[in-house]
Amino acid sequence: MGNKTSMTKKILRGMLLGLVLGSLMNNFAHDVSWVQDYLVMGLFHVLGSMFISMLKMLVVPLVTFSLICGVVGIGDIGKLGRVGGKAFAYYMLTTALAITLAIALASFFAPGAGFELAGAASSSFTAPEAPPFTQVLIDLIPTNPVAAYAEGNMLQIIFFTILFASCMLVIGKKAQPLMDLADIMNDVMMQVVNVVMWLAPIGVFALMAKTFAQQGIDLIIPMLGYFGTLVLALLLHVSVTMVLLLKLFGKVNPITFMKKMTAAQIFAFSTSSSNATIPVTLQTVEKRLGVDESIASFTVPFGATINMDGTAIMQGVATVFIANVYGIDLGIMGYLTVIGMSVLASIGTAGVPGVGLIMLAMVFNQVGLPVEGIALIIGVDRLLDMIRTAVNVTGDAAVSTIIARSEKGLDMYVFNNPKAGVIEEVNLPHAATKEKEVY
Ligand code: ASP
């Protein structure tokens, strides 16, 4: 049992080791072909990609079974609608707060004013197609649920699973075997998550080493104004806005909350994907923070898809930055449009790496900023994507906690217990010499 607490530390060590080693390689072994071929694009690439695939592998079955258990656990369709409505309202509110803070801060620091455009704009950015909002609404409903599961379309999966599980409730006793089965499957999937977590220190190390070997810190220097303002806004959102919301509406200790979020934040940081982090976020929110499964199983995957505070902050700062570079004055109406567009854009786009740039293109089109301006910020976006994804995931967990508190679904004993739900060492059967009760 002594190993229990050390897992987050091990993951943290893996992350730091990867960061240092990757940066050293970037500085000293940039031209050494065997390092690039066999380590960066060989070992690190393979281990990192395998690890991300493992996380993604968990998402669909985990969300499905835990959502079925969640809906059955709530047992009341009215309450389900209430939790859904609250989650949607909170997610939109926090995103709007985030981007407003970003625009205010960026207007104050004015990054990009006097930026030398020559040369920089020679690289180009072609805006990918963004779906119109009406299509987002239509696409909520899967024409073929099997296809939705196969593609991992999160909103469609959530829609169908809730409908299906609600009907299990309607059928009642007859559906009991199915409910029991979902319960068992859910437990098994949680155990699979534990096994994958056990491999996390290596996976996180490989992801970090590869990224930092390829991504030189020197890219940041000419973009320091943009980078610095953005990181400051992200920090303020987490340390002021979220802390206040947690205190005022969640009535919980924000420091305890933040401490327990470390593992999920590291996963988000190293994978740059809220979606791939769902298994870890779900585990953290339920087992470490004590949010009832009936709430977390819905709010976490929903949040990973529609709630992106960090991404909205990037859009706010990027808008002001590009407007300054091109000497365009958006005016108050322009900025209000940016806020509205960013909130809407976050609904229709999934939490996967780099999606923030696609959303930014949607926003730029709407307010008439040059989309090719995005080329200026692409260089530093990989790194910022990591940081903002950690913020996105923190937002999902914070809202889940607040909603759970308001629905009397937050177990304060678990929340306040520093050891609750720490990632468990896994004894696979052949090695199981001693009895171990995980949950
Ligand atoms: N990578 C982010 C996420 O998964 C989205 C983005 O900002 O690009 O949450």
Q: How would you characterize the overall build of this protein?
A:
The protein is mainly alpha-helical. The chain has a single domain, classed as Proton glutamate symport protein, CATH 1.10.3860.10. The chain has helices spanning 6-28, 33-74, 77-109, 133-138, 145-151, 154-171, 176-198, 200-214, 224-248, 254-260, 262-271, 274-288, 293-306, 309-325, 331-348, 355-367, 375-406, 412-416. The longest helix is centred in the N-terminal third of the chain and has 42 residues, at 33-74. Residues 1-5 and 432-439 have low confidence and may be disordered. It binds aspartic acid. Residues 272-274, 308, 311, 351-356, 385, 388-389, 392 line the site of aspartic acid (ASP).
Keywords summarizing the entry:
Proton glutamate symport protein, 74% helix, mainly alpha, disordered N terminus, 439 residues, binds aspartic acid, 18 helices
